[in-house]
Amino acid sequence: MILKGKKGIISGALDESSIAWKVAEGCHEQGAEFTLTNAPMAMRMGKINELGEKCNAEVIGADLTSVDEIENLYKKSLSKMNGRIDFILHSVGMSPNVRKKKKYGDLNYDWLNKTLDVSAISFHKMLQVAEKNNVLNEWSSSVALSYVAAQRTFPFYSDMAEAKSLLESIARSYGYRLGKLNNSRVNTISQSPTITTAGSGISGFQAFFNYAEKMSPLGNATADECANYCIFLFSDMSKKITMQNLFHDGGFSSTGISEDIIEDFN
Ligand SMILES: NC(=O)c1ccc[n+]([C@@H]2O[C@H](COP(=O)([O-])OP(=O)(O)OC[C@H]3O[C@@H](n4cnc5c(N)ncnc54)[C@H](O)[C@@H]3O)[C@@H](O)[C@H]2O)c1
Predict the structure, then answer these.
(1) Ligand 1, closest atom to CA 19?
(2) pLDDT, tens digit, for every residue of 92-145?
(3) How far apart, in Å, are the Cα atoms of 179 and each of 33, 94, 110, 144, 247?
């Protein structure tokens, strides 16, 4: 029970395949108390209420691009849990350009702004509103989920690559600020391709998933394994880890080529 006594907010659980769903189940098993949040539209379509019942967690709707809705989320969460929080999971991403299959050379710039707002700036908003409203306990830990396309080009990932670069930068900048403020920590986890609603929205995803599996000496990291890493980062076992982008990818990001891939070409 390494999260016993910890309180948090978990965003982005849509259905059982969501990474955030697994994080919520794991946090519950480890003794944490938390609220769940998702965009009101996703709450109607998804199964988040089922998860809420299972984890004894209140579900609070919030579009995380809205400062007002984040304020409301914190107000309700703090009153429900009777005090400030120790952890936040940002597990939110969406690109209208990817969804509507716009090519990278023909981006719709209004949609690009939406991609950045939903997938990256929303993390800044969560942290800024948290700071202004004194929501975070000392040594709190905030984690957002990223992808290696922030460092290296994966053509199918389109403008989500820009969003992930921005997300990782926000984690560093806000990590510094909150560290100075009250020893709070901010990190991103750069996760393997994972079969979820957001993941499988990317064209050619299954082929890429198989490729990454063969490239990584340990194979792709699963959503359950990602949840374990999040739990470790929320716990006091990781107190001095902050401002990092932490690869959780079975070794993919450090591998030039694997023997399995060479075999496929022979
Ligand atoms: N699946 C992968 O291959 C993979 C790999 C690396 C990183 N990630 C990242 O993990 C995170 C979670 O994605 P997932 O794969 O579990 O997919 P998912 O589709 O289950 O989760 C994405 C969530 O974002 C929510 N969301 C979208 N717009 C929102 C808004 N305006 N306000 C609040 N919530 C909003 C959706 O409702 C959904 O619950 C994302 O940041 C994603 O980029 C995924």
Answers:
(1) 16
(2) 999 999 999 999 999 999 999 999 999 999 999 999 999 999 999 999 999 999
(3) 23, 29, 34, 16, 21
| Full-model pTM | 0.97
82 Cβ neighbours under 8 A, 6+ residues apart: none
* SS3 call for 59: strand
Domain count across the chain: 1
Pocket of ligand 1 (CB under 6 A): 11-12, 14, 18-20, 38-39, 42, 63-65, 91-94, 118, 145, 147, 191, 193-194, 196-199
Residue nearest to atom 39 of ligand 1 (CA): 12
Convert the pLDDT of each residue in 41-68 to its tens digit.
888 877 999 999 999 999 999 999 999 9
In testing the pocket of ligand 1, which one of 16, 18, 90 has its CB within 8 Å of the most ligand atoms? 18
In a domain, 223, yes or no: yes
- Find the CATH number of the domain harbouring 102: 3.40.50.720
User: Is residue 51 in a domain?
Assistant: yes
Structure token digits, residue 221? 């990291």
